[in-house]
Specification:
The chain has 138 residues and is α+β, with helices and mostly antiparallel strands. The chain has two domains: 1-98, no CATH class; 101-138. Helix content is 57%, strand content 20%. It has helices spanning 56-97, 101-137, and strands spanning 8-13, 16-23, 32-40, 45-48. The longest helix has 42 residues, at 56-97.
């Protein structure tokens, strides 16, 4: 079974990744990972590792990975929100049909405050969008 490895490997970390060049062309025929850069997704910074000079090919591959990673993270964010909506509906059903008085007492204040905070933000953001849309038409 022959598998062709990618030229670059990105070890994901909190704000980006460590970038490695994958090397299989050595005497021992082992896979070696040679770190070439550190990447910060949030600010777009690409720092060569050590005294390295990144080639145009390196930069193109890193920027491509960064674009794909940002898109993936954005998709995950919206998926999390859709799951939160489902969970809110399940919580409503639980509170209405199965929760005991003690359980409700334990969570009611925290849920009400969180829902109030969320509602306040959503209403303000909706009003901002409506005002902006109205300004664009007028």
């Amino acid at each position: 079974m022959s598998v062709e490895l990618p030229e670059y490997y990105f070890r994901v970390r909190e704000n980006g990744a460590f970038v490695f060049r994958v090397d299989t062309e050595n005497r021992q025929r082992r896979v070696e990972l040679d770190q070439i850069a550190n990447v910060n997704i949030k600010n777009g910074e690409i720092k060569p590792h050590g005294d390295r000079k990144l080639s145009d090919q390196d930069l193109k591959a890193i920027r491509g990975w960064m674009d794909e990673r940002r898109a993936l993270l954005a998709q995950r964010d919206i998926d999390d929100i859709h799951r939160a909506i489902d969970h809110m509906n399940l919580t409503t059903h639980w509170a209405n049909s199965r929760a005991t008085d003690d359980q409700l007492e334990e969570v009611t204040d925290a849920l009400l405050l969180a829902m109030h905070d969320l509602r306040t933000v959503l209403v303000r953001k909706k009003a901002d969008r409506l005002m902006k849309a109205g300004g664009e038409r007028g």
